[in-house]
Write a structure and sequence with these properties.
The chain is mainly beta and about 130 residues long. Helix content is about 5%, strand content about 50%. It is built from one helix and nine strands. The chain has one helix at about 75, and strands at about 5-15, 20-25, 30-35, 40-45, 55-60, 65-75, 85-90, 95-100, 105-110.
Length: about 130
């Protein structure tokens, strides 16, 4: 299987309240966006050949601390979700959709989110 020429990422808000996100990569700043409950936000890009493409998001919602998460990490996602990657944001966890089994797995509790990177490195905070 080859890397998708164009990859789509979509973030779903399942928190029960509005979600404020600000997503970035090394080269692109996608700006701040408010995703209403049960709404979504998405974008498309071309991942690089070396599997180093990474998009991370700063997320905030009512009654919760600020959180960061690598919503697309090519090392983790290029062959898992291929060209359509869906991330669901919930109160207890953030979950990645696996199209092979048609379910959200893996999920990462907000206290476990550092485990969401394949390299074991800390999440980027900028």
């Amino acid at each position: 299987m080859t890397i998708a020429a164009k990859t789509n990422v979509r973030i779903l808000n399942e928190l029960g309240t509005d979600l404020l996100i600000h997503c970035k990569s090394k080269d692109d700043d996608l700006g701040s966006h408010v995703i209403p409950f049960e709404g979504s936000y998405g974008w498309s890009f071309n991942p690089n050949f070396f599997l180093t493409t990474l998009f991370y998001c700063h997320m905030r919602w009512a009654g919760h601390h600020d959180e960061y998460f690598n919503v697309y990490d090519a090392k983790r996602d290029a062959f898992r979700c291929y060209s359509d990657c869906v991330v669901a944001v919930l109160q207890p966890a953030i979950c990645l959709y696996d199209p092979k089994i048609k379910d959200y797995t893996p999920c990462f509790g907000w206290d476990q989110k550092a485990n969401a990177t394949t390299s074991g490195e800390k999440l980027r905070k900028n």
